[in-house]
Amino acid sequence: MVKSICSFMTLLRDASLKGLMNGTKIIKIVCGNESADIDSVACAIAYAYLSYDNDQRDTYIPVINIPREDLKLRRDVVFMLESISVSLDSLFFIDEIRKMKLDNIRVESVLVDHNDLTGVAREVVDNVIGIIDHHEDNNMHKESIKRANGPRIIEPAGSCSSLVFNYWLNNLGIQRLKPLTDISKLFLSALLMDTVNMKYKVTKLDPEAYSNYVDFLQGMDFEHYYETLVAKKDIDGLPIEGILAKDYKQFSFSSHHGVVKVGTSSIPRPLQWILEQHGNDEFVLQSRKYIIKKNLDLLLLVHHWISADVHYRQFVVVVDNDKSMELSAKIIQAIKDELQLEKVEIIVPLVDGILTYNQLALNKSRKTVVPLIRKAVEEL
């Protein structure tokens, strides 16, 4: 039996993907969302490890839902993994799984930190056999999960990691989990970052999980660890494309006029900071290039930051043609009251195709914004 995440990941990598299929044409994965933030990565690795600890005959591969080369943008994730001695070379990424499809391999997946397939995972995954998530329920995959007898847990929590921890606590018991300090550190990392050190969006399960981590990780300086993660997450030094890609999710919504492709970037600094670092012209140029690269109708930038213990949010829409401009105006009209959007002039002189707002509804994160946009598009 493996005794650490490091040895588990090494075991998986040494076995090779095909060797883990037990003579079948089916591979099972655990996949986080395509932002590949700490919550998604921690939940995918922890779920796969604890599933193996529970039953070694049923092996899941934890998959990071981005290309391998994009991991370097997520310096907080890299720091978290290195702090528990996990080699980055031992990790699995979605592009590796996509290559396996060329050999007619069937991919079954447990989804963590999201509850429907988006982006590359939509092409890769044939069957969803479990979900643990804290986003709005899209009411998908109920029958396939029921047939697989997998978990379907979708409920509010500050961090998805609290739901995954609670699921395995109920299945394995506290005595099995307590010695697994590297697992607890993964869960703790996600919880601290998603709840801003237990000060934001905290629900009932989060403090219950946190109290267990305090017990399991005695002697660890949680405050210092959190401050280090925050420093590592900073976007300082990244080019504009890196800033847009670092915490990016893409969605396809159906309207009466066809499919609308919406890209969303969550950015932990105000737009003014980006303009000061890179200039107005470079921001406009790179944002429009990103729209073309991702083949988007709309690019939404969800800015969020804290200054002097006060939360702030901005909402920025970028389009590159008249049709998308008309579409964005209709979406803004539909969601402006819910988000309390206040139009502001941040880019001066004004640039066609870029709309900037202060978002006064501070409790509405991207997790809440995306369902509002979906509803607005579907009603167009």
Largest sheet: 6 strands, parallel
Assembly type of the shown chains? single chain
- Report the principal-axis shape: globular
- For this structure, what is the CATH class of the largest domain? Alpha Beta
Radius of gyration: 21 Å
Q: How would you spell out the order of helices and strands?
A: HEHEHEHEHEHEHHHHHHEEHHEEHEEH
The average pLDDT value, as a whole number, equals 93
Task: Write down the CATH topology of the largest domain.
Answer: inorganic pyrophosphatase (n-terminal core)
> How are the strands ordered across the major sheet?
3-2-1-4-5-6
CATH superfamily of the largest domain: inorganic pyrophosphatase (n-terminal core)
Q: In DSSP terms, counting alpha (H) and pi (I) runs of 4 or more, how many helices?
A: 16
Strand content: 15-25%
Ends: how far apart? 55 Å
Low-confidence stretches: none
Count of distinct strands: 12
Query: Which range best describes the helical content: under 10%, 10-25%, 25-40%, 40-55%, 55-70% or over 70%?
Result: 40-55%
Query: How many domains in all?
Result: 2
Based on the structure given, which CATH architecture of the largest domain is correct?
Alpha-Beta Complex
